[in-house]
Amino acid sequence: MLRREGYEGRITMLDEETDAPYDRTVLSKSFAPDSAPKAALRPAGFYAEHNINIIRGKVAALDVSSRRVRLADGATHAYDALLLATGAEPVRLDIPGHELPHVHVLRSLADHRAIVAGAAQAKKAVVLGASFIGLEVAAALRGLGLEVHVVAPDEVPLAKVLGPELGAMVHRRHQEKGIHFHLPQTATSIEAEAVVLKNGERLPADLVVVGIGVRPRLALAEAAGLTMDKGVLVNEFLQTSSPGIYAAGDIARWPDAHTGASIRVEHWVVAQRQGQTAARNMLGHQEQFDAVPFFWSKHYNVSVRYVGHAEKWDELTTHGPLAERQGNVAFRQNDKTLAVASVQRDVDNLKAEVALEANDEAALAKLLHPSGSLH
Ligand SMILES: Cc1cc2nc3c(=O)[nH]c(=O)nc-3n(C[C@H](O)[C@H](O)[C@H](O)COP(=O)(O)OP(=O)(O)OC[C@H]3O[C@@H](n4cnc5c(N)ncnc54)[C@H](O)[C@@H]3O)c2cc1C
């Protein structure tokens, strides 16, 4: 976006991963051996062509007074403007056996490659966690023909985010595809050939994937003295408390223009749009970040699209035959629609996004009326 907006000065990207920038969201959708190369975000040569310098290495410190970042190898880089987008890292499961070589997490392309290699030797997999990553991983492993068991403390997967009905529909879809669920249940240890559950059951497993959530990578911002609030606190222009430093993506907590709440979300499209707004603001545009959060998740042929942000709600309404894997779910609090989740109704979800952006409750009511859907 900096180049698209006509900026001709230096751009340096500092990243500790050795792969060229890639799409993380495809990593959990398939473990087919050819799926990783499709993850690259740009063709080879793009960064050189646009004079974007990518430097590999871990940034160890950020000195806001001298406007410099220091890499772990001691090299320093000066900046006029800085975007912090350090993302998140998987929460590690602290039970005996969690460091065994057949136990994986999934955040990076390197993790993805390790799972693909492990799956090639495996027959039985256990996935710990039944949220988006856990379920997508389960579906992808099932797609390779493995026997897959999912263990999680939830009664109904995804119910805390999508509500019980939509959660149950996604759950059923996975069961129909042959996934075995152990709910509500937790693992107490992992052995070379099995996962031991709290109820004493032993699930044979030659591959284990842990998907129990992520935590934002805040160490750099914290040590630099930036104002934090369970994330890096930014204003509506995505500026942190330190002049010239912006934050975006999984680490940023921003004032949501639609609800007034201070929110942090871990979604691809939000990270992408915030990066674009931060770029324009680095060039002096003073553009408010007011996009409505959006994410999608895919489970076999069921694609869920979710627009808005509802950490809790006092009213949940379902529109359409969800059991037949179609419909919309509206999440409301104090008579205000906070979010709409849609299954196989992509046009409705786009319309809901426009209505949420405009705070147009009348349009939302029409859309979500039992006969209001266009499909
Ligand atoms: C497997 C998977 C599937 C997903 N699927 C979906 C989906 O279907 N839909 C959806 O909306 N979202 C999905 N997400 C979430 C989405 O990918 C994230 O919200 C998004 O990547 C966040 O972007 P980001 O730039 O904030 O952080 P990241 O993409 O995590 O990038 C942060 C980068 O900073 C680097 N870094 C961190 N600290 C340092 C340091 N000190 N020095 C140098 N480099 C550093 C990291 O190596 C990394 O390259 C998925 C995530 C995963 C892992």
Descriptive overview:
The protein has 375 residues and is an alpha/beta fold. It folds into three domains: 11-86 and 216-282, 3-Layer(bba) Sandwich (FAD/NAD(P)-binding domain); 92-212, FAD/NAD(P)-binding domain; 301-368, Enolase-like, domain 1. It contains nine helices and 25 strands. The chain has helices at 46-49, 109-121, 132-143, 159-162, 164-176, 219-223, 268-282, 346-357, 361-368; strands at residues 11-15, 52-56, 59-63, 68-71, 76-78, 82-84, 88-90, 103-104, 124-128, 147-151, 180-182, 187-190, 194-197, 202-204, 207-210, 214-216, 232-233, 245-247, 252-255, 262-263, 294-299, 302-308, 315-319, 327-333, 336-343. The protein has a five-stranded parallel β-sheet, covered by helices on one side. Strand 21 and strand 22 (302-308) form a beta hairpin. Helix 8 packs antiparallel against helix 9 (361-368). It is globular and about 55 Å long. The chain starts with 10 loop residues before the first strand and ends in a 7-residue tail after the last helix. The mean pLDDT is 95. The site of flavin-adenine dinucleotide has 29 residues, from strand 1, helix 7 and strand 21. Flavin-adenine dinucleotide binds at residues 14-17, 24-25, 27-28, 58-59, 85-88, 106-107, 133, 217, 220, 249-250, 266-269, 271, 295-297.
Main attributes of the structure:
375 residues; alpha/beta; FAD/NAD(P)-binding domain; Enolase-like, domain 1; five-stranded parallel sheet; five-stranded antiparallel sheet; 9 helices; 23% helix; globular; binds flavin-adenine dinucleotide
